[in-house]
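Quick one: co-fold with iron/sulfur cluster.
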Amino acid sequence: FPARAPATVRWCFADQLGSHFLDAPDQPVLLIEARSVLARRRFHRQKAHLVLSALRHRAAELGDQASFWQVGTYGEALDRVREPVSVCAPTTWGSRDLVLARPGVEVLAARGFVTTQEEFAGWAEGRGRRRLLMEDFYRDARRRQDVLMDGAEPVGGRWNLDEDNREPPPSDGRLPVPEPWWPEEDEIDEQVRADLDRWEADGEVSFVGDDGPRLFPVTRQEALRRLRDFLDTRLGAFGPHEDAMLAGDRWMAHSLLSPVLNLGLLHPLEVVHQAEGRYRDSVADAHPLPLNSVEGFVRQVMGWRDYIWHTYWWLGRDFRDANALAAHEPVPDWLADLDDTAVDAACLADVLGDLRRDGWVHHIPRLMVLGNYALQRGIDPAAMTDWFHRSFVDGYDWVMVANVVGMSQHADGGLLATKPYAAGGAYIDRMSDYCGGCRYDPRKRLGEDACPYTAGYWAFLDRTREQLAGNQRMRRPLQGLDRLEDLPAVVDQEVRRGTDPP
Ligand code: SF4
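Sure, here it is.
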């Protein structure tokens, strides 16, 4: 796709809201609020609110520069537009099909990521048949963008300081960082809320999750405020405990920037440059921010996020249907409904409750509590991808396919991750403060108080033993299976438990 088409009306989707999606600051803009998108899936209420609010705020901000259509389908609006239209390549296979099928719409190269698709293709093809490891991609991008580099070497001499970022949670149950900054709702939010209530009452749409005060930015100004708040108060503390979970501190030192980045309100490179600027200033002031925090954050934004985007396209549209571990269970109703009240397991109940209330939990509860549960119980990976997409305020198809199918459910047979992210209760106990208040015991795999994660872990290994046999990193866990005298009883217990709320 070409890079620019300035003499056209620029159609911006609701996740293309920053000025970097325009070729000139005064370019005419087309914005379409198509209600059919909401009717297609049962989204989290706060996600629907966030997207609509962001789109309407952008329309209000652009004023006469934008023509804003509130219609049933995209086609209804496009049929009425007479000027030549261009659009930056949208973010999903479905929406790309839509724009390519539309006569008179010029499709441009995608924007909003650090590495272009051409650069990724060059990198991936240059690797031949070798695996496309995120770490290699990330180092290449750091070099190319000259981020956290001292000449040809990474600042501090190491590319990846992840080893320093695996500390368990602090014993007093909170990180020493202030509460994040929160946006204030305005009359546009009020209107969005009224519309969503009305459409739901009319049966046009249905939602999961609670309505609630809007927690995430919807304008460029709010997005910059959230970024500044993170850089001022949380960046230094981000790293060490980024993999830990605390029942009483769900935000910890996380940036809460993923919804903003995924709406296109900030460009990832400006976020990375600001974080690096803070680091270099702090070094010059002789009070250096911890490099493991800064590097860990930079890796999330320009490494992992970009990598997930590029693999979404590179691995093709069939990637979503990969199911190497033959997992076919449906998503149980209590999980689909985010019904934490049905669940006794303290970790899962707490995470599900946070998700119901906020539409967001950080990456470890997603991977090691929610994803781990689905992996162990053999829930269909495509159904879980859809569930993650709908239930999270930052969830989009491009985000979730590689994250869920590849990373969390190991459904690609190990293309993206070298081993399944399956773990028993001991891991959750080490990395959280959940187990002390739980009716289950993380050390038990059999009996009334057997931890569903511990027992589920062994039952999972038993079920997938054949598929995982060739994986060197799974050799020891699989050998461990053979030493369990009570394995048949554990497997029997877990088959009976199935996907009933644990
Ligand atoms: Fe979760 Fe098991 Fe710990 Fe309970 S004992 S909180 S179910 S890991």
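If it helps, The first strand starts at residue 9 and ends at 12.
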